[in-house]
Amino acid sequence: MRFSTAIAGAVLALPFFAVANPHGHHKGRHDAIARRASGDVAHLNKRDQFNNVRFTFYDVGLGACGQTNQPGDFIVALTTLQFGGGYPGPNCFKSITINYNGKSAQATIMDECMGCPYGGLDFSRGLFDYFAPESEGVLTGSWSFNDAAPSPSPTPP
């Protein structure tokens, strides 16, 4: 009889514990953290600098930004992790400066790279050839967003 009385008491007390919700005091903290993240997390600031990142090349065509590109264009595909949602992506048509082995060039984000790591870029063949022969396959360099309108890129040799 004592056992069933104890069980019955515990069952009757259960709704009171559920209403008390001991985790409720965390709600304000989580809301404050969520408010700190403003805007789209895929948005990249112009001041962002990406160092020691992987550069590869690909065959261009109709890009994720909605334009058809040529192999000689100085364009890049930005990793899916940074490309952003929507059409066209929020980073489409942005100008960047790329540095590799003492050389520098400006390029435009025109496509999305699903296989690139965070910060990595896929170059058009013309852009890759400007920096190194395609036989190198993978380069490691740095890049950043340009604050002003893009200036003409050097023409490949």
UniProtKB/TrEMBL annotation:
Keywords: Signal. SUPFAM superfamilies: Barwin-like endoglucanases. It comes from the Eukaryota. InterPro entries: Expansin_CellWall, RlpA-like_sf. CDD domains: DPBB_RlpA_EXP_N-like. Residues 1-20 form the signal peptide. This is RlpA-like protein double-psi beta-barrel domain-containing protein. It comes from Antrodiella citrinella.
